[in-house]
Amino acid sequence: MNGEAARLTGALGEAQVEFAIRGNRARMVQRADEALRRTPLASIPINNRPVDWLVFLYASGGVPERARAYFTEWEASRRQFQRLSDGNTRHAMLGMIALAEKRFPDAIRELRDGDREGGCDWCALVPLANAYEESGNPDSTIALLAKYVEMRRIGKNDSDSFELAPAHERLGRLFEARGDRARAAAHYSKFIELWRNADPELQPRVQAARQRVGRYQAIP
Fold it and tell me: How would you write 165-181 as a 3-class SS string?
């Protein structure tokens, strides 16, 4: 990876934090736009361009037309070079675009196809959980998020830095909605543990989780 590619990749990682951690889609898209203005894709050799990441970011940010444009660019680049992971990556990108377009059955199919083809058995779990939750299926959402938080894999740490604590927070909320106080408290407690030293702007979420756990403990 050359210097320009590393610079853009680092900036896109910082953009991803805005949504994955702070829940701010618009700010993520804004920061991705700023990163591309500072480091245009054309300044990077074609085989080092993080085009797939741009698909994921803009799809997650609710801008499917931008995501689809980058997907088209990614497809065109495959005439010049290929990678063994291309099949999995293609399904994952199409799944994320479908999710952004609220085509939930298509999103679930593509993400599951990518999961079967790829060598990463955790990468599709949270996007699949998102698709099921948005389509109104809390049971499958819980099952997928529970599988994600329980899974231990070498190489999963990068994903966990974005996904693990929010997954526990979501599981707490989902079990709370079911009236399962014990499981809700367990997941909220894990969320509190993971984020106890989080940035001050994130502490209101930690405090809200503490209050929920306190209420459960006060109920006989």
Answer: HHHHHHHHHHHHHHCCH
Query: CA torsion 197→29→136→104, rounded to 10°?
Result: -140
What's the rounded Cα separation, in Å, for the pair 4 and 38? 10
Q: Which two tokens stand for residue 3?
A: 């210097």
**CA separation for the pair 201, 156 (Å, rounded):** 26
CB 162 within 8 A of CB 202: no
Structure tokens at 97: 């675009």
* Cβ-proximal residues to 101 (8 Å cutoff; 6+ apart), any chain: 64
Q: What is the pTM of this model?
A: 0.91
Q: Over its length of 220 residues, how does the chain's per-residue pLDDT go in tens digits?
A: 678 999 999 999 999 999 999 999 999 999 999 999 999 999 999 999 999 999 999 999 999 999 999 999 999 999 999 998 899 999 999 999 999 999 999 999 999 999 888 778 888 999 999 999 999 999 999 999 999 999 988 778 888 999 999 999 999 999 999 999 999 999 999 999 999 999 999 999 999 999 999 988 776 5
Q: Locate 68 and state its tokens.
A: 């689809």
Q: At 214, which amino acid appears?
A: G
Q: What is the CATH number of domain 1-119?
A: 1.25.40
Q: Which amino acid is at 126?
A: V
User: Where do the domains of the chain lie?
Assistant: 1-119
